[in-house]
Amino acid sequence: MTASASASAAGSRPPFTARDVQLVLLRRMADHQPDLVAEARRELGATAAEMREANKRWQAMAHTPRGHSDAVFRGALGAPESTAARRVGDMECEARQWPLPLWPTLRLEVLSGPRGRVWNAWLVRAPGAPAPVLRTLDDLTPWSCTVDEAARAFAPARPLEGTAPTRWGLAFTAPDARGAAHEVAAEFTWGLLQRTRVKDA
To answer: Is the separation of the CB atoms in 116 and 57 below 8 Å?
Structure first.
């Protein structure tokens, strides 16, 4: 059955597109960075209502068997730019990456296990793209880096429990511009830095 036939059989709604996927990512980020999200949404030519609707459809689909499959991403984004086998702990998985127009130096990476079941989806730095320079607290600006980049720059970093499946946290020590060390809690959505809290400020 084709994607359009599946949508029709399910009652109707068109399949997800790359624009929809980006709106879903933005909806989660809007909780922390509404101004950046509004600017990105305008770049996509989308209204706030369209963003909410895309997220509503995504959440509804996530509670169906199909919602746990990487076929959802392939249906919306087409063939991945790259596919590689990867081992995460004891699990063998496939890592697929797609470019997204809103973040040209990043890739949406989806890790899936047996039968295409999605284990993780987040933004990572695109191969060959310059990594951000992360030395002090001033460098940790919203959307400036990914989880992995912050963890490497301020090692050792300790993972913190996220407040939702698409959110991650890191605790680490970082210097300010004068070299004084501070305890930092960084929050990420879909793998992209949203905000930091300096615990000893």
So the answer is: no
- DSSP string for 41-102: HHHTT--HHHHHHHHHHHHHHHTSGGGGBTHHHHHHH-S-SEEEEEEETTEEEEEEEEE-TT
Q: Categorise residue 11: left if φ over 0, alpha if ψ from -120 to 50, beta otherwise.
A: left
Tokens 């059989």 -> residue: 9
Specify the DSSP element, H or E, that contains 186: strand 181-189
In the block, residue with structure tokens 């949406």: 108
- Asked whether the predicted pLDDT for residue 1 surpasses 50, the reply is no
Predicted pLDDT at 13? 62
Write b or e for each residue in 44-77: b if 16 or more Cβ atoms lie within 10 A of its Cβ, otherwise e: bebeeeebebbbebbeeeeeeeeebbbebbbbbb
Regarding pTM above 0.85, the answer is: yes
Could you tell me how far CA 38 lies from the centroid of its own chain?
Answer: 17
Q: Kind of pairing, strands 158-160 and 118-125?
A: unpaired
116-145 pLDDT, tens digit each: 788 889 999 999 999 999 999 999 999 999
